[in-house]
Design a protein that fits this description.
Elements: H1 2-39
């Protein structure tokens, strides 16, 4: 039962943090793109 609750919690955290991770990746890609445009 304990292992099931831990895996359920991990899945919930993963589902909740998914959009934040995608937004961070998008911001990182955009900033690296603008940096290469500016300095390149």
């Amino acid at each position: 039962m304990f292992d099931i609750s831990i895996s359920f919690l991990m899945g919930l955290v993963f589902i909740v943090s998914q959009p934040f991770i995608e937004a961070l990746l998008l911001i990182f890609r955009y900033s690296s793109l603008t940096a290469s445009n500016c300095c390149g």
